[in-house]
Design brief:
Strand content: 15-25%
Number of helices: 13
Distance between the termini: 15 Å
Largest sheet: 6 strands, mixed
Order of helices and strands: EHEHEEHEHHEHEHHHEEHHEHHEE
Strand order of the largest sheet: 2-4-1-5-6-7
Number of strands: 12
Structural class: alpha/beta
Length: 366
């Protein structure tokens, strides 16, 4: 049973790379965005709806029913600095804010601006060097966590042999971190043995390169940077442009994006990348009382999807009545879709699809 799922993304990066500007644009909020280190001390949090145009169309189909979209929580973490894992800057005070999130969006400066403060005496910036600084601090923080846990787990595994695989995994992770490598560099490591440690580098990372307007169309720059951080996903977003989009309506926003050769906003790109990276999808429920999107893992069965709504739905699952979104829209009503044979009855082994609109049948006495 999954329970209701919520997606949360930590926005991290060095000071003055555009993190808070991007956060404000993504969440349409007004967090302090200033050109000096530690403008963000306490993490700013913003909850935004997952863009899904299907919800409005379904609402209209059901007499303008209220809409409840899936949501993403963005956490704007204070700018990391070299030595953060050892208490430099604000140290572990804000590293801890990352632990509760599902994924990391690492904002990297990839624009030129002599007016932006940098910690380097030369006044230059290097995206890959900046990435290395952040990753090193995350690795060192994880190394401390694992090193504290290993001796205790070693004793426990001697007394309880079934813990030996967990100990072996943690020992392997310790060696990996000690060599300076993040856990995400080894996708073969069993994450179930690490889940209670909330390790930072066990979280998937999405690199968000903050470029200027010209950088949005600089495909050579995109290719160079994407190759350097592969296989992690990379996005190229202009925080200043995203900030401009906040004040525009739908049509003007689309026109401005098109003028820069962008098909969608940075918010849409980041949410889509997070869903793909975390292996998530949404399914829909619809009726006169509510039209709603529910987030589930890809590959979830119908009973597991029902459990996201309520645990009793999973335990007492009988069947799922499902119709594809396009089929329902084309039919014009659920009754018409049923009459044309487009509504299906699915059982316990059915694997949910992202275009499913579902009504579950269940027995709570089970």
């Amino acid at each position: 049973m999954y329970g209701e799922m919520s997606l949360s993304i930590a926005i991290v990066g060095l000071p003055n790379v555009g993190k808070s500007t991007l956060f404000n644009a993504l969440t349409d909020s007004s967090a302090l965005a200033a050109n000096y280190p530690f403008a963000t001390i306490e993490p700013n949090t913003g909850i935004v709806p997952v863009p899904d145009p299907r919800l409005q169309r379904l609402s209209e189909l059901y007499g303008n029913a209220p809409i409840k979209p899936a949501t993403v929580t963005f956490v704007d973490v204070a700018g990391l600095v070299k030595g953060a894992s050892e208490g430099e800057g604000l140290g572990n005070q804000f590293l801890s804010h990352i632990r509760a999130t599902n994924a990391i969006a690492q904002v990297v400066r990839a624009f030129e601006d002599p007016n932006v403060v940098t910690d380097e005496a030369t006044g230059t910036h290097d995206p890959i060097r900046d990435i290395d600084i952040i990753n090193t601090e995350l690795v060192l923080a994880d190394l401390q966590t694992v090193a504290k846990r290993l001796p205790k787990l070693e004793k426990e595994s001697r007394a309880t042999p079934k813990l030996k695989p967990e100990y072996d995994t943690l020992q392997e992770v310790h060696g990996l971190l000690d060599s300076g490598m993040p856990i995400w560099s080894r996708p073969d490591i069993d994450p179930t043995h690490l889940s209670d440690l909330f390790l930072l580098t066990a979280k998937p990372v999405i690199y968000v390169f903050n470029v200027d307007e010209n950088g949005l169309s600089d495909l050579a720059l995109h290719s160079r940077l994407a190759q350097l951080i592969a296989p992690s996903p990379s996005l190229f977003i202009c925080a200043k442009l995203e900030d401009e989009l906040r004040s525009l309506d739908g049509n003007d926003r689309a026109e401005l994006l098109e003028s820069y050769g962008q098909a969608e906003s940075g918010l849409n790109q980041l949410i889509r990348a997070a869903y793909d990276t975390l292996g998530l999808q949404s399914y829909l429920t619809a009726g006169a009382k509510e039209v709603r999107a529910w987030t589930i893992p890809q590959g979830a069965t119908a009973p597991q999807a029902a459990g996201v709504i309520h645990g009793d739905f999973e335990h007492g699952f009988i069947a799922a009545e499902a119709v594809a979104y396009n089929d329902l829209i084309a039919a014009g009503s659920l009754q018409a879709a049923r009459a044309s044979g487009k509504v299906r009855t699915e059982g316990k082994t059915y694997i949910m699809q992202p275009d499913d609109i579902v009504e579950f049948r269940f027995n709570v006495s089970k």
